């Protein structure tokens, strides 16, 4: 299966969302409600299921965690600084840009791509990516966005207290906490709850992609093209290069080295527009995600081809 074949269903589902909203089959309000369902129910259910069942003792490579985490932090910092210095974006837009630069769609795009190359390594690599994203990068990104989203002239102390309070109440953070608590304690969810969570979680991908397409109806891309170029190039080019360079400092086995480069090169997470919508930036996030997902077919193909050449030498 080629990279384009893997990405095609994702792009098709986005198209379905765009088409059905544009012809009036569903209203814009329906897109808003779907995004809330993904953010508050479907994705948290998916996180609880995955984090609670991860075998932490078997899945961890310290060097892999350092490479993937450092790549994300470097991309986040670069995205924020470049947005302020080069694009003159305000702090909130710069924070949203940095989130798009740093966070990969490791589940919905990463696993299907990486498993084509290293079937036995994929699960281990994904678990470590998932931990770094949900314990380090996503909480940090939300913190930065909350701190920069000061519209009421509050003091710094008030902003930080409000940010921490909102972060604690964030459904994704709550889900990670519950998942880790279940994993560490060894407790198992009752069968009925486990099945219910599984049912809800299965809706996360389709609805998240539908929301992306629906959010694009009426969007004007040209107004945000410089932001999109910055985020897209950082995510697809800067991140895999940084990850590869870091593996020279923190060496990994060949398969894990390639896996961390591939996961770093994925387009941003599919709920990027859902998060952006909470801060009046959903249109930019939707259009940027679509562009990045389409172009990732090219960049991932280049990386996979370079890997094939390296393996043949």
Distance between the termini: 24 Å
Order of helices and strands: HHHHHHHHHHHHHHH
Residues in helix, %:
over 70%
What is the overall pLDDT average? 84
Based on secondary structure, the structural category is mainly alpha
Q: What is the number of helical segments per DSSP (H or I, 4+ residues)?
A: 15
Which stretches of 5+ consecutive residues score pLDDT under 50?
none
Instruction: Determine Rg (CA atoms, Å).
Output: 19 Å
Q: State the total count of DSSP E strands.
A: 0
How much β-strand is present in the residues?
under 5%
Major sheet, described briefly? none
User: What's the oligomerization state?
Assistant: single chain
Sum up the overall morphology in one term. globular
Topology of this structure?
Blueprint: H1 3-22, H2 28-53, H3 56-59, H4 62-85, H5 91-102, H6 106-114, H7 119-148, H8 156-169, H9 171-185, H10 191-201, H11 204-215, H12 225-249, H13 254-264, H14 272-277, H15 282-312
Helix pairs in contact: 1-6, 1-11, 1-15, 2-9, 2-10, 2-11, 4-5, 4-7, 4-12, 4-13, 5-7, 5-12, 6-7, 6-13, 7-8, 7-13, 11-15, 12-13, 12-15
């Amino acid at each position: 299966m080629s990279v384009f074949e893997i990405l095609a269903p994702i792009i098709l589902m986005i198209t379905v969302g765009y088409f059905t909203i544009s012809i009036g089959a569903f209203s814009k309000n329906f897109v808003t409600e779907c995004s809330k369902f993904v953010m508050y129910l479907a994705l948290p259910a998916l996180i609880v299921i995955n984090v609670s069942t991860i075998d932490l003792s078997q899945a961890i490579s310290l060097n892999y965690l350092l490479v993937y985490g450092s790549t994300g932090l470097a991309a986040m910092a670069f995205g924020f600084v470049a947005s302020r210095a080069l694009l003159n974006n305000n702090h909130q837009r710069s924070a949203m840009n940095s989130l798009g630069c740093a966070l990969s769609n490791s589940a919905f795009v990463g696993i299907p791509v990486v498993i084509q190359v290293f079937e036995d390594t994929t699960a281990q690599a994904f678990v470590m990516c998932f931990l770094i994203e949900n314990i380090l990068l996503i909480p940090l990104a939300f913190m930065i966005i909350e701190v920069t989203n000061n519209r009421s002239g509050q003091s710094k102390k008030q902003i930080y207290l409000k940010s921490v309070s909102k972060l604690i109440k964030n459904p994704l953070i709550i889900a990670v906490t519950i998942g880790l608590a279940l994993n560490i304690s060894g407790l198992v969810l009752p069968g009925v709850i486990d099945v219910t969570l599984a049912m809800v979680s299965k809706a996360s991908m389709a609805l998240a992609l539908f929301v992306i397409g629906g959010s694009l109806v009426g969007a004007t891309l040209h107004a945000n093209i410089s932001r999109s170029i910055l985020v897209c190039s950082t995510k697809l080019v800067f991140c895999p290069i940084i990850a590869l360079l870091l593996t020279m400092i923190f060496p990994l086995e060949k398969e894990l080295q390639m896996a961390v480069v591939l996961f770093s090169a994925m387009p941003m997470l599919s709920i990027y527009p859902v998060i952006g919508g909470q801060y009046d930036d959903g249109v930019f996030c939707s259009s940027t995600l679509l562009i990045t997902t389409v172009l990732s077919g090219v960049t991932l193909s280049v990386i996979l081809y370079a890997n094939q050449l390296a393996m043949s030498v």
